[in-house]
Write a structure and sequence with these properties.
Chain A is an all-alpha fold and about 290 residues long. In chain A, helix 4 packs across helix 7, helix 4 packs antiparallel against helix 10 and helix 12 runs antiparallel to helix 14. The longest helix of chain A is centred in the N-terminal third of the chain and has 33 residues. The radius of gyration of chain A is 24 Å and the shape is globular. With about 325 residues, chain B is mainly alpha-helical. Chain B is globular, with a radius of gyration of 26 Å. The chains are: A mainly alpha (about 290), B mainly alpha (about 325). The interface between A and B is large, with 95 and 99 residues.
């Protein structure tokens, strides 16, 4: 290339911009990690920046010995697994039949489903319905009401539609019914979309907050985000933790940081591995949605 | 497209239907549960919407509740006479507009920059890390922000203090809170929203870049004259979708970031409905507010869709 010198300077500016973005994303997490591992004296004196001062694991130890917190972690894990499995099952049940062009009533069903994406009754009618169904404050309220996402159904349907009809037809000649075709042809080819949507549903449930805040008042069933919210917004942790048996006052700042880490680490551990799948899923969703 | 085997065409309509059902009934069975879900959790609540026009009673069913005054519009009138609702409506539109102004161009710029990055592995790493905030809940982000931006003990203000500068009340003063809210929105979404633009960029014909380079176009010039026009239609569609959701309101984000010092700017329609409805038990009023938001939202979307089609784009409805 002729303009090499100029290009080089440009390259470094671009690298600089990208490094800034990377640091802006990472540094807050690094700072919180450092706080969670620092001594309460160092925290009170505001000495902690990106590296722990007075390294110790007391905050993690305290949270892990706090029955309420570990319970919420397990409970949210269980909710996430059960919720994601149910959501994927329902999404497949809904998306697969709609890929059959010949299915009578397909257009009507499509319209009825997509309509709910643009118009919804609102929070209060949903709340009153859940009350009438007697699932308010029951564990099911954290799974059923939002177990299907129209957006995810559309992504799944678009993906399944890409699979050539000829594959289905040749299986049909061999006498396979729709369910056989789904299980033995469509699902094995759908790893990317299954991985993507499972990630979306799982992250949604793990991060879910407002449904628990509004529909759940039984403390044993509080998911981790609700506990975390109460913890980070309390003026001091005394409000939250002494009710359960007391804590050293200086520990509170490190405790908040450690609790945030507990809620963040599972997500950080999972999403990078699914990157090549979810990029395709997100693009498809934005295009078809 | 023609179904193999089954020579159904020679028979009468009845047999045709039977043959069709014999072949496809399982598909309807598969649809049963999902359709039940939509009926129960999406369509039955729409019947409950009539509470907006009725006097709510805990002991009566939705159908038995008496109609509200003013031809049923009592609670809509009450909502618009309620100062908190007017503030919530104003804040919803204000925060969404600021989000649009700051948050819409940011991922486009980042996508164009990422596209110019020569080091492929570094590009991938940048993308992976930039996607991360999208996967964090607003509770986690609020937790981060409360610690990083705390008035005297937060990292940013400690560093400002060491440089001899005054501390900034990021989350404790209305104007600063709005700025912080918008900034955190950009932080959370900038990486993720590049995905759609990066996909659009890969569809640009590489010969255009070569031709531009041949003509001696600088890098900036190529970004401006090749990349940007190449993703124009994606930008227009995304912009129109965003405009269509201008009255939509998130709950977690303003609720988690807000506090008593800034509630005049942090309360939006979604938090108003929660506070007045679920906590305050004013069900008719808050159902009316929700209905107003949904109806206006649909109108905005339809108008936005018209515009998209007018621009020769695919539209969204």
């Amino acid at each position: 290339m002729v303009i090499s010198r100029k290009t080089k300077a440009g390259d470094w500016i671009i690298v600089l911009i990208c490094v800034t973005v990377v640091l802006a994303c990472l540094l807050p997490i690094v700072h919180i990690a450092a706080r969670s591992l620092s001594s309460s004296e160092a925290l009170i004196r505001s000495e902690v920046t990106l590296w722990p001062k007075g390294l110790n694991f007391d905050a993690y130890g305290y949270l892990l010995s706090d029955g309420k917190f570990t319970r919420a972690l397990w409970w949210t894990t269980l909710l996430t697994i059960v919720g994601t499995a149910l959501s994927m099952f329902m999404t497949t049940l809904c998306a697969y039949p709609l890929t059959y062009d010949k299915l009578k009533g397909r257009k009507v069903i499509n319209t009825l489903i997509i309509f709910t994406m643009f118009f919804n009754a609102g929070t209060i009618p949903t709340y009153l319905l859940l009350k009438d169904l007697a699932i308010l404050n029951k564990p099911a309220v954290l799974i059923l009401p939002y177990c299907l996402s129209v957006f995810n159904i559309i992504i799944m349907r678009s993906f399944l539609k890409e699979i050539p009809d000829s594959m289905r037809e040749s299986a049909e000649i061999d006498g396979a019914g729709p369910i056989r075709v789904l299980v033995s042809i469509y699902l094995p080819l759908s790893t990317p979309v299954i991985a993507t949507l499972s990630l979306f549903y799982a992250v949604g449930r793990w991060n879910g907050f407002s449904d628990a805040l509004m529909f759940m008042n039984v403390r044993e069933y509080f998911p981790i985000q609700l506990l975390l919210y109460n913890l980070i917004t309390a003026i001091s942790n005394i409000d939250v933790f002494t009710a359960e048996g007391g804590t050293a006052p200086g520990l509170s700042e490190a405790l908040k940081a450690a609790a945030i880490m507990f809620a963040t680490i599972p997500i950080l551990a999972v999403y990078p591995w699914l990157q090549r799948y979810f990029i395709a899923g997100a693009t498809l969703g934005a295009e078809k949605g | 497209m023609t179904a193999p085997a089954l020579p159904v065409s020679s028979r009468g309509p009845r047999q045709k239907l039977l043959a069709y059902l014999g072949r496809y009934w399982t598909l309807y069975m598969l649809l049963l549960l999902p359709l039940l879900y939509f009926a129960v959790f999406k369509y039955i609540p729409m019947l409950y919407v009539q509470i907006a026009f009725k006097k709510f009673s805990i002991v009566k069913s939705v159908w038995e509740m008496p109609w509200a005054n003013n031809h049923g519009f009592e609670y809509f009138i009450k909502a618009f006479a309620n100062r908190d609702f007017i503030l919530a409506l104003r804040n919803t539109i204000m925060l969404n507009l600021l989000d649009l102004i700051a948050g819409f161009p940011a991922p486009i710029a980042l996508a164009i920059v990422l596209n110019e990055l020569r080091f492929k592995r570094f590009k991938r790493l940048t993308q992976t890390i930039a996607y991360m905030p999208h996967f964090l809940s607003w509770i986690i982000i609020a937790g981060l922000a409360l610690q990083v931006f705390a008035p005297s003990t937060g990292l940013v203000n400690v560093l400002l203090g060491r440089m001899g500068l005054e501390p900034i009340p990021f989350l404790n003063d209305s104007a600063h809170w709005v700025a912080t809210y918008v900034f955190l929105g950009v932080w959370q979404s900038i990486g993720w929203n590049t995905i759609i633009y990066l996909a659009a960029i890969t569809a640009i014909n590489p010969e255009l870049y070569e031709a531009a380079a041949m003509d001696g176009a600088s890098r900036i010039r190529r970004m401006w004259s090749v990349t940007l026009p190449g993703i124009r239609s994606t930008i227009v569609v995304m912009l129109i979708i965003r405009l269509g959701y201008i009255l939509g309101s998130e709950f977690d984000r303003p609720y988690a970031l807000g506090n008593n010092l800034v509630k005049t700017v942090s309360n939006v329609i979604a938090t108003f409905v929660y506070i007045y409805g679920i906590r305050g038990l004013q069900f008719s009023l808050t159902t009316a507010v929700g209905l107003f938001q949904s109806v206006v939202g649909v109108v905005f979307l339809l108008v936005a869709d018209r515009f998209a089609k007018k621009f020769g784009e695919r539209g969204i409805v």
